[in-house]
Amino acid sequence: MTSANYRDEFKSVIQKLIDSPDNEHVALTNFIGNEFVKSESLMDSVNPATGKPWIKIPNGTATEVDSAVAAAKEVFRSWKNTTVQQRSTLLNKVANLIEEFNDEIAVLESRDQGKPIGLAKVMDIPRCVQNFRDFANAALYTLSTSKILEQPSGKCINYVKHDPVGVAGLISPWNLPLYLLSFKLAPALVAGNTVVCKPSEMTSVTAWVLMHAFKLVGFPAGVVNMVIGEGRSAGQRLVDHPDVHLISFTGSTLIGKKIQEDSAKMNKKVSLEMGGKNPGIVYANYRKSDIAAIARSSFLNQGEICLCTSRLFVQRPILEDFLKSYVAEAEKFTIGNPSTQVQIGAMNSKVHFEKVKKYIEIAKAEGGTILCGGVKTVLHGCEDGYFIAPTVITGLPDTSQVMTDEIFGPVVCITPFDTAEEVIERANSTSYGLSATVWSANTDELLNTANELRAGTVWCNTWLARELSMPFGGCKQSGTGREGLHDSLHFYSDAKTVCVNLAAKY
Ligand code: NAD
After folding, report:
1. Are 86 and 385 in contact, with CB atoms under 8 Å apart?
2. 89-136: per-residue pLDDT in tens?
3. What transmembrane ranges does the database entry give (predicted)?
4. What is the pTM of this model?
5. 228 lines ligand 1 (CB under 6 A)
6. Which of 104, 201, 273, 445 is catalytic?
7. Contact, 373 vs 390, CB < 8 A?
8. 273 is known as an active-site residue
9. What is the distance of C-alpha 139 from the center of its chain?
């Protein structure tokens, strides 16, 4: 198929979903061996802004996962023996196609996830494109190494070959659906693995669109497969399947730990990117002009980013002034139907919405003060949607559940501190260690604090700025392993050292 033809076909797939009528929902399918295969059973997927179903999705079964794994297994050897240049070319074609329809795919991501459309346009979809492009290109140059071993008997050349691991199970969450799935798919495929994806059952739509891109640009049948469905059935079968050699999981710590245990029984390679309860530390001399960035670090994407700041430690002398400025910033966020130009959209699901509200109630019961937000926001036309305005809480001890559990919503607790030593200990006191932010005009203070924080990423006077090639992941119960250009390519391959005697004569 020429690229002009497949562009039209891709466009019509997206448009059909955008136009999906309210009363007659489009039904998604699994994707197995390059076929869009109906599932045995379907379930509703809800638009979080309206609280109403808008699409039908498969409730994938163990048998469906088995078929997907069989398809991936069958084609593994031939895919692994393609050249990295061939794989890279195909991935670049996927990147180009997604990029061309960036804005249309953003409409779907926003409707399915609840995130503001503006954010999906500038963050989620472009980042997906970048993931495919950067991994496609990096893999051409990064993996090979060789050394000459000199011995009295002659020289040996040692070279390291990076073999793909096999069939990779890719399990992703609902907060950054396409962005995070592509962060797994791109390195897994360019390294020569075949894959079975299991996107979150809460947000499967853009992953389904992506499967069309793989087929249309010419990926061989079976290299990429996807089963949509619940974690406890489809996801669990993928983890338990003996022919799946590697699991890459992004999601909650609870499920990640279960996956680690289950995978250990078969010694599968696992990468776990899990939850966080990220501290932000604001020293008295912080730059006041950073206040908007500090607030953004808590509330972007409704606080539904694993890297959002949820505990803010503010040095005591500036506490009062800081609270005034911070609450003023929090109240500036516009909240509304995510398909319009707003900064805060809807919480992803009713279950999640209820969870966030429950923590706000716990904060009240424990004597916390709600400085702003804290209640359901009712919006005209979206009365049943799951909206909560940015919520700022003070007056809770560090031991409160609200200060130790991951809430994953637009809720931040602010608490004072006195010394660097004290705040470092308190910031490190939860079971998580994903990321942290430090705000100060003093470089020594910044770097000394960054040095002592137990987190996979520490941002100093900034947030969310990370170059793709840097290692990404969590400490403690926030994760196992690292992702990023080099780390991911290593994870999705097994290094094999080959030693060849150059002096041997036959
Ligand atoms: P979740 O753990 O509930 O689900 C994640 C994925 O795992 C989903 O696809 C789900 O269907 C699947 N799953 C559930 N049970 C399973 C099982 N028994 N076996 C196999 N798969 C199973 O997480 P979520 O609610 O979708 O996402 C929110 C969480 O993700 C938060 O904790 C957040 O911090 C975390 N997260 C972490 C990162 C990171 O990079 N560290 C990034 C984004 C989100």
Report:
1. no
2. 999 999 999 999 999 999 999 999 999 999 999 999 999 999 999 999
3. none
4. 0.97
5. no
6. 273
7. yes
8. yes
9. 21
